[in-house]
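Intended use. Records like the one below are meant for learning the mapping from a protein sequence to its folded structure. Do not use them to infer anything beyond what is encoded.
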Amino acid sequence: MRKQFIGNEVVTVLGTYLKECLYFTANRLGRVITKMAEDEFAASGLSPTSAFLLMAVFEKEGISQKELGEILHLQPSTVTRLIEKLIIKGLITNRVDGRLSLIYATDKGKASEEPINECWNNLRGRYAALLGEKESDELSLYLYKVSDRIENIE
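Structure written out for the chain above:
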């Protein structure tokens, strides 16, 4: 096993590569955060992504499928699958207007707004408890900005 020194700490070369590799570090963080989000949103009966899609519909009734994809940074096929699942659950409905598919919350969907907000607040509370409120907010904003920069380059 190849080793090197960082300060007084002996670390393996692979360990250093993994710590310095944005790909592995971001995926590791993604797995941890996904687990936390799934745990918190389980109470709503929705995946975190489905819940965020519904939140976008609450904010803008009659939102287009294309706009949902742009807001959530999801591929059209993923948005379509999420919408189909939410239609089956009776939480949203879609209406075709020319070439646009417009999404509306049903009464059942609207009734889920408060539980979804509670799940969201619980998730943010978990981040804050682990990282500190200011630090978790700053980290989220920083990661959002970095994601935007990288996404807009490609």
